[in-house]
Amino acid sequence: MNNPLLVPFNEAPFSQIKNEHFLPAIELLIQQSKEEIEAIAHQTEAPTFQNTIEALDRSGKSLDRVTSIFYNLNSAETNPELQQIAQTVSPLLSEFKNDLLLNETLFARVSQVFESKNSLDLDAEQSMLLDKQYKGFVRNGAHLKEEKKNKLRAIDTELSKLTLTFGEHVLAETNAYELHITSADDLAGLTEDFIEASAATAKERGKEGWMVTLDYPSYIPFMKYAENRELRKKLSLAFGAKGFQENDNNNEETVLKIVQLRHSRAQLLGYESHAHFVLEERMAQSPEKVTSFLNDLLSKAKPAAQKEFDELASFAKKLDGIDRLQKWDGAYYAEKLRQEKFQLDDELLKPYFQLEKVIAGIFTVAQKLYGLRFEQTQDIEVYHPDVKTYRVVDQEGVFVALFYADFHPRPGKRDGAWMTSFKPQQIVEEENERPHVSIVCNFTKPTPSKPALLTFNEVTTLFHEFGHALHGMLANTTYPGLSGTNVYWDFVELPSQVLENWCYEKETLELFATHFETGALIPMDLVQKIKDSSTFHEGMQTLRQISFGLLDMGWHGKDPSVISKVKDFEDRIFSETILYPETPETCMSTSFSHIFQGGYSAGYYSYKWAEVLDADAFEYFKQEGIFNQEVASKFKNFILSRGGTEDPMDLFVQFRGRKPNPEALLRRAGLITQN
Length: 675
Fold this sequence. Notes:
The protein is built from 27 helices and 9 strands. With 675 residues, it is of the alpha+beta class. Among the domains are: 4-143, Glutathione S-transferase Yfyf (Class Pi), Chain A, domain 2 (Up-down Bundle); 177-240, no CATH class.
């Protein structure tokens, strides 16, 4: 078979790739990678940093590239055949990883280099790579007896299948549900744009009327604006019941199996729990420290959240006689209260946030901060017509990165937004190989009469993912294993979250927020209202994030074998953070893709953790000017370009001149007064 994945390529050859190419390519590349590893393990020369540690980091390059293409397609443009291939491929890759990490001969060489570390004259990056590799072996069973190694292999194989199954079920539930509206009366309160988009969705599906789905650009505006409370309830319960219904997509058993296997794996490796295992290699270090961090935030946020909730409940009662505020009322009445308090409506803002102009604006921000230029190109192959591609160059015109952007929902794409990489940055034989970086989002689509107009929340999401992309694009390290976003998980959100701050600044909005029809700049009173409303319901939002972090730690911080009912356990965890009446029909855990599919297990707290870093970092920018070149250069040189080459706290101190001050976050959130 003429397989494009087995021919050397620079840009991913999407137009040539067919589903049937993946399995034979991955099988062959696994075999080739095994041969590379065996050659490293059994070479006759004494182990050195170069012939063992460096060689190992650079091995499997072709396999990594092909699997990055495969898994991104399985997230962004999947189909049943691709999902079936994933169920075959994931165990193969899991087995390959175990073959590597449980290879006694290879580990003996790595250990020899590690034990002679102090005499090797390594630089900081080399030292970090050596530590990371050695710990990788030790933390994944290199010291285990053969019987336990076999048990570890079996656990990892099963986990690789279960996490895929979890995600497939969530996607299937999302795609299966549709709220078909046939009466125009049921559209009361909804915007013209939304009604037009819903009519287009119905037409695409061969139906009359209007179609509302569980995709975010459909679900969120409906919950925010639809006056029909019964329909809001219906949609809310459907959204919350993903993976929790009596059908083939039920995830309850899957969740229980995943957490039990993770716990068994951690115990096998000598750790008290999965969270103890994970957090050993995080800034937070331990479940106790994470729980303490979350509970400290909880003590500050809960009084504010309760006050906000009580005000919202009173407002709903006064406005519409709502006796008891329910989950499906929250977004609706919060939007009305926000409009009353700030005279600010998303529909007033959306005409100023045309997707193409926001993209141009974010590119200008990157140019002003880091000297980058983005040149759109039509000659790079893409996996779907929606995907846009850009060559990124610096001020001298030197190539920096290839950037892919995929913005709109479709049936083959999972919910949410993420950044990924098709090719890592690394320096090989003095040549700096530049990265290929991608962001994937689910933003409001264009309609027959209007371009894609974003909500302000979508604007901040775009800035967030673009912050991750900058972390990948500006990487400048020698080794791929330490490049770009290969950093501690509770540090990886700093570049993304810090960039969101620019969305609220007048100097930024003036770059791109112009009316899509008139070209008029966004009125400054609207800019002020955006800033004034930025902490609206911050207490409730913080409480929500804390509740997710506590749920994650609940699943992964203790022995889960005593848990028999997913919903009962979840309710107990949420008891300290709950504001709305409980809904027995819904369950968060069965669709909590971040922790059961997306790599955030025992790590969801990192969003709030990184907020401490980003709030303090942005205070530095604000103090000197948000486009100040000196501060931007420091952020680029000490954070964005350095990847995982040093301890993240050391990098932050080099940037900021000191450790982060947690009060910066509380000040920004309005939970304590400004100095």
